[in-house]
Amino acid sequence: MNFDLTYIPERSIKPRESGITMMMDKGLSLRETEDFIEASGQLTDVVKFGFGTSYVTNNIEAKIKLYKQAGIRPYFGGTLFEAFYARGMVKEFIQTLDKYDLDLAEVSDGSIMIDHNEKCDLIKSMSKDRTIMSEVGSKDSGIIVSPAKWIKMMSTELEAGSWKVIAEGRESGNVGVFRPNGTAHTLLINRIIAKVNPNDILWEAPKKQQQVWFIKLFGHNVNLGNIAPNEMIPLECLRLGLRGDTFFDFLPEDYAERLKQVNDESEIEED
Q1: Domains of the chain (ranges plus CATH)?
Q2: Assuming Cys at both sites, which of 5, 67, 126, 242 could form a disulfide with 237, CB separation 3.0 to 4.6 Å?
Q3: Cβ contacts of 50 within 8 Å, gap of 6 or more
Q4: Are strands 201-204 and 131-136 parallel, antiparallel or unpaired?
């Protein structure tokens, strides 16, 4: 950090097991990638080439090298895996991972239906040679997955070898663990974390109010994903109590209460 400040929560150190931040790269240019790394590389754990963008993005091999040199783990979005799977090309998908020397991969079934036992077999097989993240939840807002099914799928995928299970939220933040208006499915999430360790879950949370909600529930070292490149530093400020939304969350309780009381008294005088 650039200077000393008391009462700042301690962030986990890269490579992290908790407090992970995943940035979604939807087609940054090579120069934009370099600029992103200069500005936010130290805050970034993993980068997802969103949906199928890696198929059409220029200089993808050079971008992968840049991220890896910066200590960031890049991977192809789960929709690309599903595109290979739907065409009966799982073997070719794995060969593509090898071609680009990617040690991190996502196995998902958000756009198509994959038998869950088969999905777990794929996770088990692929995790022998690389780190696997698997995604749970549908991208279709019309498909409702019961809390019991969320729990079963997350648990069995972790048992099969997933490093983290990704809770679907999409880049829009209005499906999966979120309602159409973007607010969290509180009951669903509470049911999930009663059975699944939150440190094993990466929550897709592209919107600020969603990030704030998860930080207040789980603390500053919650795993969050689908973060836009220009939102990495603002998110880190949320994690550290350096934005108004979380300003009082990490101050000593008596100190925070005193400040809140002063604020309240000031507002009364203004009225």
Answers
A1: 21-240 (3.20.20.70)
A2: 242
A3: 24, 25, 26, 77, 171
A4: unpaired
